[in-house]
TrEMBL record:
SUPFAM superfamilies from the UniProt entry: Acyl-CoA N-acyltransferases (Nat)
Domain N-acetyltransferase per the UniProt entry, residue ranges: 12-162
GO MF annotation: an example: acyltransferase activity
Pfam families reported in the protein's UniProt record: Acetyltransf_10
Enzyme Commission number(s) from the entry: 2.3.1.-
Entries under PROSITE patterns matching the protein: GNAT
InterPro entries recorded: Acetyltransferase_Butenolide, Acyl_CoA_acyltransferase, GNAT_dom
Name the UniProt record assigns to this protein: GNAT family N-acetyltransferase
Keywords associated with the record: Acyltransferase, Transferase
């Protein structure tokens, strides 16, 4: 577990997710404002289950401020092949640097696992975010109807050795 402070000085703890977090993570994904309207179908039936949490490196950002330890965001790092599978920040917590903290933590985890690159297929509204946190555009994931009827940008995080 690690504690960090977001740029707006709100204490944030990043810890490994546990099976008991599964329902909260699923609600965070399904309730994301980034997936409203045309994008809603992509997450309508999505589930982050205890089995998923056990199989991958899922970490949560927990607010230590007035949020009472509520999960403010999370990410999932898949090791083989190396991919940032999920990254979500609660709508009401966006703009506080939590996404940036989660990416930095993911990069540290990837480095510790011996990875030198981590791919991410971005949701279209998140493309600018990935640019801002240092990901490099490497291509395009083509649409896969009916689940995802639009092309998506592919990015790569290069993980330098320490």
């Amino acid at each position: 577990m690690s504690s960090r402070t977001s740029p707006k000085s709100q204490p944030i703890t990043i810890r490994r997710a546990v099976a008991g977090d599964a329902k909260r993570l699923t609600r965070l994904v399904r309730g994301s404002g980034a997936y409203e309207g045309v994008y809603a179908a992509a997450v309508a039936g999505y589930r982050v289950g205890p089995d998923y949490i056990e199989a991958h490196r899922v970490h949560v950002a927990v607010g230590s401020d007035g949020h009472g330890g509520r999960i403010l965001g999370f990410y999932s790092l898949v090791l083989a092949p190396p991919e940032l599978d999920l990254l979500f920040v609660a709508d009401e917590a966006q703009g506080r640097g939590i996404g940036r903290l989660l990416v930095a933590h993911m990069q540290s985890e990837a480095r510790a696992a011996g990875l030198d690159r981590v791919m991410v297929v971005s949701h279209l509204p998140a493309e600018d975010f990935y640019h801002r946190v240092g990901a490099v555009r490497i291509g395009t994931a083509l649409a896969n109807p009916p689940a995802v009827p639009w092309d998506r940008p592919e990015f790569e995080f290069r993980i330098p050795a320490e």
